Please model this.
Amino acid sequence: MYNFDVVTPKTVADAVAALGEEDAQALGGGQTLIPTLKQRLASPSKLVSLTGIDEIKGIRTDDSGVLCIGGGTSHSTIAGEGSAYPALAALAGNIGDPAVRNRGTIGGSLANNDPSACYPAAALASGATIVTNSREIAADDFFQGMFTTALDDAEIITEIRFPVPEKANYQKFEQPASRFSLVGVFLAKYADGVRVAVTGASNDGVFRWSEAETALSSNFSVDALDGLSASSDDMIADMHGSAEYRAHLIGVLTKRAVAAAG
Amino acid sequence: MAKVQMTVNGKSVSGEVEGRTLLVEFIRGKLELTGTHIGCDTSQCGACLVHVNGQAVKSCTMFAAEAEGAEVTTIEGITGKDGSLTAVQQAFQDYHGLQCGFCTPGMVMSATALLKDNPKPSEAEIREYLKGNICRCTGYHNIVKAIMAASGQDVGAIAAE
Ligand SMILES: Cc1cc2nc3c(=O)[nH]c(=O)nc-3n(C[C@H](O)[C@H](O)[C@H](O)COP(=O)(O)OP(=O)(O)OC[C@H]3O[C@@H](n4cnc5c(N)ncnc54)[C@H](O)[C@@H]3O)c2cc1C
Ligand code: FES
Ligand code: FES
Model:
């Protein structure tokens, strides 16, 4: 690792001020950033640790039933206290391993937008709102391709607001070495329609499978997906699976998600 | 360099660290507590697992500076003052839950964290919890047996797969 300073502000305001310096970068749980720094793929001059900021931690339900999760909340807290949205809590409880879940945060995962990460699928399928220190961003506008988001340099995710669906399920086809998803499908059924978000598959990162959404919105059943297949154009192809294999998994996992959501 | 202060195994310790100093480097290099191992250094293997404020953490994936004011427990800190082994340690010995021993400190710390949250885990829960602890020797079988035994459960039911 190249060297850098670590600062530990206690408030969002102080963290934003510290991030204003050139080459400063936010440090969430470090479960992605520290390995990246070890590979010298990043060279910040200062890391602004967010773990001491209590105002961006915790889970609450607002007056309209929306689940609001602080950006600095760990995966294990969401797994343990996110029961208002069971599919989301289950997703959190299946990320990596217990030690990764004790440190890693939802804000860090969304900001990183790894093409195989789990939370981006949940946020997109739920039509969540990503709240930062300066604005609110709809999930549909937030994810802008592999490792790319709408966030500005010194912007911190302070909260994520999840409208709680009637039914939901996440199906993760795990890549056993990395423990990330080889392909993951998050399905959420709301009164006004079904949303299906796919992670792990596309070179563009997380995306919505609109044909499946249309079919499931008019007929929420496994049969409604018969004959539908995701296109393998622009799918990730690597040693773990070809583009066609990933495209096939999208169909299989979406069916499983419908069956599991009941 | 900046000063960091924390409590390790019940003792208050402090030292000068760089921003990039990992918690595991502080524990092994500055405190000379070499029971905590570095296996992969890429957050995969769990040999470096310690408890920070009671939670299992990979100390190769946390900076020493982030542990300011924290309570850290390493493998050296769990045995009794007279050197007596904990139930988990004793069971690893009784059930031959180790061969080369490299993964063992992390396995024991992981198992200890599991039993604190879940005093009677099922075999499946144990295997799931140990996902982030890699062992190249034992095939995990005797590790799982040891943890079943340490939690007062029957190990007879676990058959080789
Ligand atoms: C062994 C292992 C297995 C894993 N398995 C999975 C898995 O199955 N599924 C999965 O989804 N992930 C997995 N991960 C990744 C894990 O979920 C990370 O915790 C997560 O991707 C990053 O969160 P973090 O809090 O650790 O962020 P960091 O690593 O600290 O930061 C990541 C990036 O986000 C930025 N950032 C951090 N917090 C914020 C914030 N609040 N606002 C704005 N920017 C911020 C940082 O500047 C950095 O660019 C795994 C990681 C490991 C090591
Ligand atoms: S050395 Fe920390 S996980 Fe392997
Ligand atoms: S006993 Fe050798 S790595 Fe586990």
